[in-house]
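Lab notebook, bench 4. We co-purified these components, and the gel suggests they stay together. Before we commit to crystallization screens, I want a quick structural picture of the whole thing.
Request: model the full complex, all chains together.
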Amino acid sequence: MQRTNFSELAACSIARTLDVIGEPWSPLILRDVWVGISRFEQIQDDLGISRKVLTERLNHLVEQGIVERRPYDRRPRYEYVLTEKGTELVDMLMVMTRWGDKWLAGEAGPPVLYRHHACGEITTVDLRCTHCGEPMHARDIDPLPGPGAAN
Amino acid sequence: MQRTNFSELAACSIARTLDVIGEPWSPLILRDVWVGISRFEQIQDDLGISRKVLTERLNHLVEQGIVERRPYDRRPRYEYVLTEKGTELVDMLMVMTRWGDKWLAGEAGPPVLYRHHACGEITTVDLRCTHCGEPMHARDIDPLPGPGAAN
DNA sequence: AGTTGAAGTTCCTTAAGGGAACCCCAAGTG
DNA sequence: CACTTGGGGTTCCCTTAAGGAACTTCAACT
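Here is the predicted assembly.
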């Protein structure tokens, strides 16, 4: 298929972010690397993704500075580790997970739980305003044009 | 292309969520509907997406309960509005936006700003622990198997 | 009766994903 | 030293999804 490059659409941070991790499999690869499934063979095994596509995705994630390819042996063996940029992108996965847990997990309950280091509790993530600390969701805000707006 | 259905991979809320909004264009369509670009022609115009693909995506989002198709005229005219499920999915867009603003916006600054109703300030979203209220990011948690875990 | 406009549908072309087979290279083994 | 092993890809072919333009439908308006 001929896929559009989203970020050429407009000045839109969502479109730009999609050009980084919007391709099929990329969020799942990011998740794997995050939880320590970090070698080519391991990821391929875990996801069942085609080797060709996995190569393409990893190369793209390296180019975009999300993961770093580093040797772990004197033989030509490599593992992929999250950069700071990639680690912060995991925020998105955490929010996706929370939504999936709530709306799609069903009777069985969430497949994965998170223990928060700060309080030691099994807990969930919540969106709050950086300024006032109150909850901040879709209905709590108005979007306004910013300095980087196009046109 | 033959695309894998991600949620058949394993019990994974990320994979399940990707089956809902992971297809190309879907997050941008969700964004449009959220900000009030809610009719077929408007969305097609705004995104430059092919009409065929837009039809497919909207049908899928309706099936998944993310948007609702409702007539707005006695003529056969329809608009798409977010359901509660869809509105909560916008949380993911807000986090994507924040990441894109920080890592991809460059000199120009963010293209869109958010004013928070609660405090009236132009502000950003932050991830916090539902339990203790402290920041909760990738490095602040340990993932554990939950009740819905596979195998 | 003819036009308009929103909302799709059809059809063809092109490119991306799936999958299996193959390759390369350093280390270990006999 | 020849041979095997295993990680990490690369190649090739097939299928299917995205792009894009043209066409259709249907109610209201002129």
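The first helix of chain A runs from residue 13 to 21. Worth comparing against the SEC data before the next meeting. The mean pLDDT of chain A is 92.
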